[in-house]
Write a structure and sequence with these properties.
Elements: H1 15-21, H2 30-35, H3 44-50, E1 55-59, H4 64-69, E2 76-82, E3 88-89, H5 91-103, E4 109-111, E5 117-122, H6 127-136, E6 153-154, H7 163-177, H8 184-190, H9 201-204, E7 219-222, E8 236-243, E9 246-254, E10 273-278, H10 283-297, H11 308-315, H12 317-328, E11 348-351, E12 357-361, E13 367-368, E14 370-371, E15 374-375, H13 376-386, E16 390-393, E17 399-404, H14 406-418, H15 429-432, E18 434-436, H16 454-467, E19 477-480, E20 494-500, E21 503-508, E22 519-525, H17 527-544, H18 551-557
Helix pairs in contact: 5-13, 10-12, 13-14, 16-17
Length: 572
């Protein structure tokens, strides 16, 4: 169904569209490439397809120059992302991921900002074994990357109400039901035999079609009053509406996205806009039809303008809503009232209404690793061996040891204390509200450090925070090594986007609840200038803030910056 009054952009399809079209539904020559022992890498075409299988080919950029001097190929390795809807994993699955990180990865795990596991440093000849062991644990990497719907997020905290468990089940169903239907993944990695003949489109990909989507697509479900999954950053966001303790449905928001390109004002972060309400049973229908609108009208010529937010802006929000309702065959109801308090996590032990206990642990940068003075990975491994509940990865890169029985709580707490996992209490509220993307040395897009640098920068900002009596004041701070937005920098009250080695664009003024974007405050500045600016701003905030006023609100009220009402003036 295509509305002739709505049109996709004219223009020659990008090379990625050719690769998808020639791929035989994401097969390409991946199987042959992975068997090739001559190089530890794969061709660019196959690397594009590899994303649909949950992986990116990367190289260690710390070694790149030296290897070039020695006339060696780059130190190729694969990043592998594991799809975990709503961020929920069993203790057994945690132990499998830990074991694989040690055997085939770089000895660490990354908890991503989309509630997924990520492993780095996997060599080409270990990829198939790794994916097969992940599959044996009832997890997979299907569609964790690529031009398809990604891991569906949802509020992971089960302590507030039974609604969270219900919402998690909906997120899992959405994530599973919106997967690509091609059997390419199973044939390449799990040795499934390919059925003879070429299936027609309806059989192979009834929703996505042979070209899949113009770009990635992201869905998240929030449970007010917590906006911890940053629902407005999603292509499609669902906001749970609860009445008399029962989930009656979801408000529907469309057109969010964080990515942009430096110097290109045709690209910008944007918040999703609420367009109506649907019942729980209708969310799959809504998601499928929204995805097909993006499939039919998204920009397949210019990938920088291919996300759904640009499709919504180009076609018009009202036109997209009308097209959605025509495809549904019914109209969305009027949106219901709701409110958010924050977009962060609550740390420490909390007792849920079902009598189970939940411990939320701060994980700096989402990196699970052992160091000389902090045995985080070992501690969590030992907890997983005795834990009978589950683990929940938060959208802020933290971890909930969830559904701990009263009988098990003592043992789990002993292990938490033994391995010093409560040491996060000594951190400032600013650090506990921080988030950073992976960036260097593995991300090929990184222009500056993020995960490796933000903790050091916060060390120095904490001195300013302490001088002004703000140690316990939550201020969200986020850093990305490039403008793609993997750490949702545009929703940090203080945000940094890498511009060059040691240089960042500094942004201020996002809302504490994730409902307002930040705005550029200073361009292309280094650490000395960052600290100089924050020394003035944080001192003013300490002295001039009103009761209960958040930092992002203060800098707008004080005239430091003007509020961003949409994405178009984000750069100014």
């Amino acid at each position: 169904m295509v509305n002739k009054t709505l049109k996709a952009p004219d223009g020659r399809p990008s090379d990625v569209e050719r690769i998808k079209e020639e791929s035989d539904y994401l097969r390409g020559t991946l199987k042959e490439s992975m068997l090739d022992q001559i190089s530890s890498g794969i061709s660019d075409d196959d690397n594009r397809l590899m994303k649909f299988h949950g992986s990116y080919l990367q190289d260690d950029r710390d070694l790149r120059n030296e290897r070039q001097k020695q006339k060696l190929e780059p130190a190729y390795q694969f990043m592998l992302r594991v799809r975990t809807p709503g961020g929920v994993a069993t203790p057994k699955q945690w132990l499998v991921m830990d074991d694989l990180a040690q055997k085939y990865g770089n000895g660490t795990l990354k908890l991503t900002t989309r509630q997924a596991f990520q492993m780095h440093g996997i060599l080409k000849w270990n990829m198939k074994k790794t994916i097969q062991e992940i599959h044996a644990s009832m997890l997979d990497t299907i569609a964790a990357c690529g031009d398809v719907n990604r891991n569906v997020m949802c509020n992971p905290n089960p302590h507030q109400s039974e609604i969270h468990e219900e919402v998690y089940e909906w997120s899992k169903k959405l994530s599973d039901d919106l997967l690509p239907r091609t059997r390419a993944y199973h044939e390449i990695w799990l040795d499934e035999e390919k059925v003879a003949g070429t299936p027609d489109v309806e059989e192979a990909e009834p929703m996505y079609g042979p070209l899949y989507l113009p770009r990635k697509f992201k869905i998240g479900i929030a449970v007010p009053p917590s906006n911890d999954i940053d629902v407005y950053s999603q292509d499609l966001g669902y906001i749970a509406i609860v009445e008399d303790g029962k989930l009656i449905g979801f408000n529907v928001a469309i057109g969010g996205g964080m990515g942009m390109s430096h110097g290109d004002k045709q690209t910008y972060p944007q918040l999703a806009k609420v367009i109506g309400f649907c019942t729980p049973e209708q969310i799959y229908d809504v998601a499928e039809k929204v995805i097909t609108i993006q499939r039919d009208y998204g920009n397949r010529s210019e990938r920088k303008n291919a996300r759904f937010k640009y499709t919504v802006d180009r076609l018009g929000l009202d036109n997209v809503k009308a097209e959605l309702e025509e495809r549904l065959g019914w109209s969305l109801a009027e949106a219901k009232p709701y409110h958010f308090d924050d977009n962060g996590d609550r740390y420490g032990w909390i007792k849920g209404i079902n009598g189970r206990w939940h411990f939320t642990l701060f994980v700096e940068g989402g990196r699970i690793i052992d160091s000389d003075d902090y045995q985080l990975m070992t501690g969590l491994r030992e907890i997983a061996k005795v834990h009978t509940g589950d683990f929940r990865l938060t959208a802020n890169q933290n971890l909930v040891i969830a559904n701990v029985t009263s009988q098990k709580k003592k043992k789990v707490n002993e292990l938490i204390e033994q391995y010093g996992l409560t040491d996060g209490k000594k951190y400032s509220a600013l650090r506990r509200s921080s988030m950073a993307c992976v960036s260097l040395p593995t991300c090929g897009l990184a222009m500056a450090e993020a995960e490796r640098y933000l903790p050091t920068l916060i060390d120095k900002i904490e001195a300013i925070v302490d001088e002004n009596g703000l140690r316990d004041k939550e201020i969200t701070i986020r850093m990305t090594g490039c403008p793609n937005g993997c750490a949702r920098h545009a929703l940090g009250e203080i945000g940094f986007i890498g511009k060059a080695p040691g240089k960042y664009n500094m942004y201020l003024g996002a809302a504490f609840d994730g409902s307002r974007l930040s705005k550029m405050y200073r361009e292309n500045i280094g650490e000395e200038e960052i600290l100089k600016e924050l020394r003035v701003l944080l001192a003013r905030y300490a002295k001039e803030r009103e009761e209960g006023e958040h930092f992002g609100d203060f800098v707008i009220r004080a005239g430091v910056i003007k509020a961003v009402t949409d994405g178009t003036n984000f750069h100014d």
